[in-house]
Amino acid sequence: MKMTFIGATHEVTGSCTYIEACGKRFLVDFGMEQGEDMYENVRIPVSPGEIDFVLLTHAHIDHSGLLPLLYAGGFCGEIHSTHATANLCSVMLRDSAHIQEFEAEWRSRKAERRGDPPYEPLYTMDDALGAAALFVPHRYDESFSPAEGVSAYFRDAGHLLGSSSIVLTLTENGESRTIAFSGDIGNTEQPLIRDPQYVEAADYVVIESTYGTRTHDRPTDYVTSLTQVLQTTFDRGGSVIIPSFAVGRTQEMLYFIRQIKEDGLLKNHDGFKVYVDSPLANEATDIFISNRESCYDEEALSFVRRGINPIAFEGLVRTVTSNDSIAINNDNSPKVIISASGMCEAGRIKHHLKHHLWEKQNTILFVGYQANNTLGRSLVDGAKKVKLFGETIRVAAEIKQLPGISGHADVNGLLEWARAVSGVKRFFVNHGEASSAEAFAQRLRDDLGAEVYAPYSGAEFDILADEITVDAKPVPLKKSDNTANLNAVYAGLVAASDRLSQLIRDSSGRTNADMRQLSEEINRLCDSWQL
């Protein structure tokens, strides 16, 4: 029995673990790397056609996004997941393939003008459809056996509709070992979906560390805050445009708006319309509804039992065609437009921004994290003008931001989940930035007295011998040196960063309490600038 760590090792995305056991080769997740990539990842040690099956924790692209590439390479085994994950992947992988093909076509046009060869998409729509056809769905907590000697079940991780932890038992030559893969552990008190469920026992645990150094603030009173934004904007005759992630955040917004309408919290604007203008978001909303019995929390199910759809209401308009989308901007009444993408980088939201950014009566409301170098981040940071479809647009609309309800457990939630698992011989910490993974590994040692290992890509573990056979070292990706382009202000920021780094290096002799206080202050500073 051997486990090899491939992706999301000292990084947040690209989750993938390779296992050889019971005469089989299989993967737990096969995700796409997103955002900044810090380290080189080793390749899976066999060809795609030699992979027997895949176990998938959930549908987010950083866990599922390379499954079409696996299929394109010759993989024809089964992909095991929960029912909701299979449903979401059927639309999210198609959406990813569409983006791959669109981007390749755009790059190829530019390459052709330069006389360069055309670009090929990472994978095609046919590849996505082929991968989607391989899914075998399962209920939560229902044991199944994808191969002789291998049994598994999915436990609700409370992160996304259908998200799961995987409890895997391997039996070889009369010896059995159980490995729990946390997947992405959810935050508590999220709307619609249940809180994360714990795993009772395992020999080994592979646990994420996305927020391994951070604690969440108390949840925002979203209904009150959202009502205030709607009331102020509608009173001045404007509309509220919400760039939103199609899966998860859009459905949460519908949940809150239904409550605002039902409780009559908005004055003098009864019957206002809410447009959901994203084909992916609309398909995902249907999937939320169809999986309500297995995934909704008790509050959401209480509405269902009374015959109320908690994410539908009078005045909701779900657009499908491009003509439907264009027609929204002919409606001059105060309204809400929810559209993807959540960071304004692609999709129909850009058209709505073009029509509404320059009008001061409107509000652009951000409800999720805006990464660096995105249009959404530029607007949040106070851009006065932006470029859309080659046209310069003046920013006159009010730009507002509501802190997102994090879908990830914070460090206390992660520790609570880990503490619930009995009989653990060793924890493996992955799916977190290097500092977060290492810090959370130390918390597990300090708080639980646990044996902990935070692997880099290529690390190998002999499961039966309980031995790390390859202690891989980090291989950083080479980055270009852009220091010559720094302006004076940014150079000052870099100098301040160097000073902070020196302070951290000089803190090794301080007390644990002082070092923890410094860590918390740095994290609070980072949180305040990363909204």
Describe the structure.
The chain has 531 residues and is α/β, with parallel strands linked by helices. It folds into three domains: 2-215 and 407-470, Ribonuclease Z/Hydroxyacylglutathione hydrolase-like (Metallo-beta-lactamase, Chain A); 222-401, Rossmann fold, CATH 3.40.50.10890; 487-529. Helices cover 34% and strands 21% of the residues. The chain is built from 16 helices and 23 strands. It has helices spanning 61-64, 67-72, 83-114, 125-132, 222-235, 249-262, 279-290, 292-295, 298-305, 322-328, 349-356, 375-380, 411-419, 434-448, 488-505, 512-529, and strands at 2-7, 16-21, 24-30, 53-55, 78-82, 135-138, 144-147, 150-156, 164-172, 175-181, 204-208, 240-243, 273-277, 316-318, 335-339, 363-366, 385-388, 391-394, 398-401, 426-430, 452-453, 460-462, 467-470. The strands form four sheets. It has an eight-stranded mixed β-sheet. Strands 7-8-9-10-11-20-21 form a seven-stranded mixed β-sheet, covered by helices on one side. Strands 14-13-15-12-16-19 form a six-stranded parallel β-sheet. Helix 3 (83-114) runs antiparallel to helix 4 (125-132) and helix 3 (83-114) runs antiparallel to helix 7 (279-290). The longest helix has 32 residues, at 83-114. It is globular, with a radius of gyration of 24 Å. The model is unreliable at 480-492 (pLDDT under 50).
Task: Write out key terms for the chains shown.
531 residues, alpha/beta, Metallo-beta-lactamase, Chain A, Rossmann fold, 3 domains, seven-stranded mixed beta sheet, 16 helices
